[in-house]
DNA sequence: TGACAAAATAACAAAATTGTTATATAATAG
DNA sequence: CTATTATATAACAATTTTGTTATTTTGTCA
């Protein structure tokens, strides 16, 4: 029997808010693009209704790789990786200097 | 005597359009985020009215590093690099999946 | 044309990211 | 509480990107 219940965003937010670095970044008006990216990735996955493991499978990487990308402390993003994710889920990656 | 004359966008576009890969990417409706990033970087530099060398100096890297980032064939972007550029020029890097 | 400035290309070591495995922590259902 | 699922953390080799130097091509202007 397949479980499709996921943690809600609210739960996730609550959990992440216990992380001092995450809180700090959220408080900054010009918020950090790395944390912002982690959020975007999580939101994408949630929209798809997938667990990290399922999401990871579509990208042919293990779950741990997705956990790392969604971590608020991760700063190692490459456009290659983000583009690969975007196209796997029929999205377009947009990059801007605003 | 200091020259501040730069190639215009039109000139640049004309030049790049001779590049088959560039043309191909531009023709695709869901245009490539790598080429798009190269454009964004060039536009940012143009707005600042800087040569590659001057732009590079503010980032503490040689001109060649900027030429590479502005090349339509470059696919090695990291958010670290893009963020460094954004903040050096008081911009915010925006990343989205659309 | 020649001299000079701007930009592009190439090559390589150093640094950073990715994929991977193992393991730990957290949440949920029973 | 226990079993199970979901997510997080750590460590390391393989791959990729960065910084760098050298060189080349392109454009501008006298």
Write the topology of this structure.
The structure is a homodimer of 98-residue chains.
Chain A (H helix, E strand, L loop, with lengths): L8 H8 L3 H8 L5 H16 L3 H8 L3 H8 L8 H10 L4 E5 L1
Helix pairs in contact in A: 4-5
The first copy, chain A, binds a DNA duplex (30 and 30 nucleotides) through α5.
Organism (chains A, B): Candidatus Desantisbacteria bacterium CG1_02_38_46
GO molecular function, one term (chains A, B): DNA binding
Protein name (chains A, B): HTH cro/C1-type domain-containing protein
Please give a structural write-up.
The structure is a homodimer of 98-residue chains. With 98 residues, the first copy, chain A, is mostly helical. Chain A has a single domain, classed as lambda repressor-like DNA-binding domains (434 Repressor (Amino-terminal Domain)). The first copy, chain A, has six helices and one strand, in the order ααααααβ. Chain A has helices at residues 9-16, 20-27, 33-48, 52-59, 63-70, 79-88; one strand at 93-97. In chain A, α4 crosses α5. Chain A is globular. The first copy, chain A, starts with 8 loop residues before the first helix and ends with a strand. At the A-B interface, α3, α6 and β1 of A face α3, α6 and β1 of B. Chain A binds a DNA duplex (30 and 30 nucleotides) through α5.
Descriptive labels:
homodimer; 98 residues; mainly alpha; 434 Repressor (Amino-terminal Domain); disordered N terminus; DNA-binding; DNA binding (chains A, B); HTH cro/C1-type domain-containing protein (chains A, B); Lambda_DNA-bd_dom_sf (chains A, B)
């Amino acid at each position: 029997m397949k479980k499709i219940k996921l943690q809600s965003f609210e739960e996730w937010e609550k959990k992440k808010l216990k992380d001092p670095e995450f809180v700090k970044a959220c408080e900054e008006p010009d918020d950090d693009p790395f944390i912002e990216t982690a959020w975007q990735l999580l939101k994408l996955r949630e929209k798809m209704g997938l667990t990290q493991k399922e999401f990871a499978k579509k990208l042919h990487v293990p779950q741990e790789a997705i956990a790392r990308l969604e971590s608020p402390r991760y700063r190692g993003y490459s456009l290659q990786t983000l583009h690969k994710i975007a196209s796997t889920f029929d999205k377009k990656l947009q990059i801007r200097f605003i």
